[in-house]
Amino acid sequence: MSVHNLKNFINISNSIKKISNKVNIIAVTKTFPLEIVRPLIDYGHLHYGENQVLEAINKWSNLLKNNNAIKLHMIGHLQSNKVKEAVSIFSYIHSLDSEKLASKISFEQNKIKKSIKLFIQVNIGNENQKNGIRITEVSSFLKLCIFKYKLDIVGLMCIPPVNQDPSPYFNLLKELALNNNLSNLSMGMSGDYLKAIKCGSSYVRIGSAIFGKRN
Ligand SMILES: *Cc1c(COP(=O)(O)O)cnc(C)c1O
Questions:
Q1: Residue 29 has pLDDT above 70, yes or no
Q2: 49 has which bridge partners?
Q3: CA distance 24 to 194
Q4: d(Cα 64, Cα 103) in Å, to the nearest integer?
Q5: In this structure, is the dihedral angle defined by the CA atoms of residues 8, 12, 15 and 18, taken in order, positive or negative?
Q6: Which helix (H) or strand (E) is 156 found in, with range?
Q7: What's the chain's average pLDDT?
Q8: Whole-model pTM?
Q9: Residue 114 — φ and ψ, nearest 5°?
Q10: Which residues does 141 contact at the CB level (< 8 Å), separation at least 6?
Q11: Alpha carbon of 1 to those of 5, 36, 214: distances in Å?
């Protein structure tokens, strides 16, 4: 069963390379145990995504001790009381969306002399229920992160509204990134990664298209 996962991954990777060779695939392993992920690890894939801090620590801590090439990405909403643990295990956080988080990340990573690569999550569809910085506040929030908290902001991340063509939202995020001199875009999931890449995505977050349906 897990051999199929590697096949899926290679097929996806090949279809992406036809469009761009600058895209990083984050294999989203949330809910899947390490046995399921193992063929990708053995194949040499390095980027994995989780959306819960404790699950990430339980699943990956041991493996990371012997393999520091693997990079874990926090792609889910981050609670401020989990920042210390998150900073200890993740190389990237895609869900920076408040000054409180910026401040805590700064404080915790300084203590252990680490510099996490961060994406500012943008509420690109201006939806009440969604996390993320408002489009109109991205510039000022970015400045705060860089100058007050000395954070390494590498790009912008979004999750577009469901049941709509995501391309206009992807294009909007790209324009926002360009206007703010940010070079990376974290956008695109199993259902829309090709569209996201055509709009300039550099990090796609793909789970079910590789590992199958989650329970
Ligand atoms: C779960 C998740 C993904 C992956 O979703 P799939 O549809 O399984 O590819 C991507 N991004 C975020 C933020 C997620 O929570």
A1: yes
A2: 28, 73
A3: 13
A4: 26
A5: negative
A6: strand 152-157
A7: 97
A8: 0.97
A9: -120, 155
A10: 99, 120, 133
A11: 7, 8, 14
Query: Which structure tokens are listed for 207?
Result: 């789970």
Mutate to test the pocket of ligand 1, among 32, 36, 51 (most ligand atoms within 8 A of CB): 51
Is 131 a pocket residue for ligand 1 (Cβ < 6 Å)? no
SS3 category, 62? helix
Q: For residue 3, what pLDDT band results from cuts at 50, 70 and 90?
A: confident
Could you read off the pLDDT of 67-112 as tens digits, one per residue? 999 999 999 999 999 999 999 999 999 999 999 999 999 999 999 9
Q: At what angle do helices 34-43 and 53-66 cross, to 10 degrees?
A: 40
> Residue 58 half-sphere exposure, CB side, CA atoms within 13 Å?
10
Question: For the chain, which domains are there?
Answer: 2-211 (3.20.20.10)
* 141-144 CB contacts, 8 Å cutoff, 24+ apart: 141/99, 142/180, 142/182, 144/99, 144/102
The pair of structure tokens assigned to 136 is 């109109």
Distance 205 CA to ligand 1 centre (A): 6
Substitution site in 75, 92, 185, 213 for ligand 1 pocket (most atoms within 8 Å of beta carbon): 75
Share of the chain above pLDDT 70, in %: 99
